[in-house]
Amino acid sequence: MSHSFKIAPSILAADFTRLGEEVHRIEQAGADLIHFDVMDGHFVPNLSFGLPVLEAVRKITDLPLDVHLMIDNPERYLEEFVHAGANSISVHAEVCQQLPRIADRLHQLGVRAAVAINPETEPERVIEAASHLDMILVMSVHPGFGGQGFIEESTGKLRRVRQALQQRGLDLDVEVDGGIKVGNIRMVAEAGANVFVSGSGIFGQPDYNEIIRRMRAELTAVNAADKTV
Fold first, then answer.
1. CB distance 7 to 26 below 8 Å
2. DSSP secondary structure string for all residues of 94-151
3. Low-confidence residues in the chain, pLDDT < 70
4. Which residue in 107, 117, 147, 175 could disulfide with 121, CB within 3.0 to 4.6 Å?
5. Helices 19-28 & 51-58, crossing angle to 10 degrees?
């Protein structure tokens, strides 16, 4: 199946001393959305940014803002993140019992609903709720720190998620986050992902235009191969 591929630079890896310039650079380089990793120091052993950074970026770009809540009790903050400018919000299956209810609430608030799963989490419960969702986010590193290496077993999980969705006749976005670089983006696309979060894989490069162009070339090759099958 041929999917619409989207590249989502993770702002956590940007240079925060010149954040506005960084946002404009990835926008001009052809990013499809901007990914925000929000960490609370509880669900993951690290802290990141919150609402003020999201609000600031919302003022300077029209790109969709993809917010990944790596926090406990995300239900308490949904309205605030929507108000700050989120277009899509991912909550974690590990801390949310009522996935359909949270997804329905996000839709009521006017944003896309997604659920994330950690590397050790099986996807079945999320797949059961998939008819309520717009996207499933598969973590391909242990969440909480940037710059980690891609966990190879993630490709098998991506394949299982995509196949299970197809069996149910659902064409959700499948997002992958962690260790995504130009050297492995084609492999994870072939496994079923179509939204690619990349932090240091983009922001760690000198030329954002060039690195995103190379990523797109890899993804174009996947779609071309699909059409010849």
1. no
2. GG-S-HHHHHHHHHHTTSEEEEEE-TTS-SHHHHHTGGG-SEEEEESS-TT-SSPPP-
3. 1-3, 145-147, 226-229
4. 117
5. 50
55 vs 36, 67, 86, 88, CA distance in Å?
Answer: 12, 12, 9, 14
- What's the CATH class of domain 6-228? alpha beta
Angle at 28 between CA 203 and CA 210, to 5 degrees: 55
pLDDT digits (tens, 9 = 90+) for 27-57: 999 999 999 999 888 888 787 888 999 999 9
According to the model, what pLDDT value does residue 143 have? 79
Contact call for residues 194 and 171 (beta carbons, < 8 A): no
Q: Is the dihedral of CA 197, 171, 99, 53 positive or negative?
A: positive
Q: Is 92 helix (H, G, I), strand (E, B) or coil?
A: strand
- In angstroms, the CA 203 to CA 71 distance is 24
pTM as predicted: 0.94
Q: Encoding tokens for residue 149?
A: 């290496």
**Domain parsing of the chain, residue ranges:** 6-228
